[in-house]
Amino acid sequence: MNIIFKYRMLSDESDHFVRDFEVYPDMTLTEFHRFILRALRYDDCMVSIFKADNEWRPVEEFSEIDLGDDVPGAPRCMDNVRLMDVNSDFHDRLIYTFDMLNNRSYYLELIDMQRPVGDLTYPRVVFEHAPVPDQYDPEATEESGSIFEEMMSDYNEFDGDDSYDDEY
Question: What's the rounded Cα separation, in Å, for the pair 54 and 32?
Fold first, then answer.
């Protein structure tokens, strides 16, 4: 494949959690799900992936369970759908629901499309910030500093020159 999709993953449980993934667009949603489980170090779990609109409202559901074409309104099976079938434009969005009972999800946005770099292996995690929310206990999520505060911390030590006088 001559293009790579770059997704940014966020969580509503931690304002600081960020993951960026680079993946092939011809991955099935099942392959994408397995990659996410490994990247987050989560145990195997039942998920649904939803295509979302620009307000993060679910538009279409994709499930691990194949209910067949005979059931009206049934979600399509993730095995039969590729990322490029669901997302093809910048800012297209997915909702990755990993805990249906507690309605816990991650939010993914397509933020870049680029050519693969020859010696890199895909799919891959390209950016990580803050601990991953606990798979089983949302209350156990560790909080860490804001990514903005962390990036700006290099500039906090600038004291300036108090002896400088701009009036002559």
Answer: 21
Token couple for 20: 């960026």
Residue 160 is assigned to a structural domain of this protein: no
CA 131 → CA 28, 32, 66, 139, distances in Å?
A: 27, 21, 33, 13
- Whether 123 is in a domain gets the answer yes
Average pLDDT for consecutive 10-residue bins of the chain (168 residues)? 93 94 98 98 96 96 86 89 96 96 96 95 97 90 56 54 57
Answer whether residue 159 is part of any domain. no
pTM: 0.83
Q: What's the domain count of the chain?
A: 1
Say how far apart CA 8 and CA 126 lie, in whole Å. Answer: 10
Which residues constitute the domain of residue 18?
4-154
Residue 68 per-residue DSSP state: -
Q: What is the CATH number of the domain that holds 22?
A: 3.10.290.30
Q: In whole angstroms, what is the distance from residue 120 CA to residue 163 CA?
A: 51
Please count the other Cβ atoms lying within 10 Å of the Cβ belonging to residue 33.
22
Please answer whether residues 95 and 109 qualify as being in contact, where contact means their C-beta atoms are separated by less than 8 angstroms. Answer: no
